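Consider this:
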Amino acid sequence: MERLYKWALIDTRVTYKDEGDYIDSELRLNRYGIRTRVQINEAGALELWVPLKDAEVARAVIAGEVKEIIDVQKELYHVFDEQLTYKNKNLYKVKYGIKARFLAARRYSWIGFMILILLLLFKFIKF
C-alpha cells in the first residue's frame, strides 16, 4: 500500500527562474496520466515529485529514454477533488453496458409493435 500513496523525488534544480521551470516536464507527464507536484525545499531548491508507482516511468520520460507510452495502467486508488467527486472516472465506466438510448428505443419499439397489432385487429374486425 505504501507504494500507491508515497511520492518520489524525480529532479531537483538549485538555480531556477520561477516555479514554472518544470512546466514542460509536468505537461509531458500529465499527458500520460502521471500526477506531479512541484515544491521548494528548505535549501531553496525546486523539486519535482511524482507518485512512487510512476517514478520509474516518469524518469524515463523526462530523460528522453522513452518516445511514447502506449498503455497507461489505471490507478488502483481514488483521488478526490475539492467537491469530493471522483477524478478517476475510467474505473467506473461500464465497458460492455447497454447504452441508455438503446433502452429507450427498445421501449418505443414495443409501443410501436402494440399499435401495429391494434391496427391489424381494427382492420379485420368490424365493430
User: Anything to note?
Assistant: The chain has four helices and three strands. The first helix runs from residue 2 to 5. The chain has a mean pLDDT of 78. The beta strands are 7-13, 37-40, 46-51.
